[in-house]
Amino acid sequence: xxxxxxxxxxxxxxxxxxxxxxxxxxxxxxxxxxxxxxxxxxxxxxxxxxxxxxxxxxxxxxxxxxxxxxx
Length: 71
What we know:
1 helix
């Protein structure tokens, strides 16, 4: 982790426990969540994991929860 950066923790699914650096993301993109590349999900290499913000979260760390995998 880097000082001054903002991270969200990924919870559930193939990316569970990883931190995603969202430094510089517009606030609306963080509210909308993210679809992240993941080689370990249901669709293997080239697949993606759909993550959305969890309730709560505070300070420098927030949490995105896994909603499912997409091709």
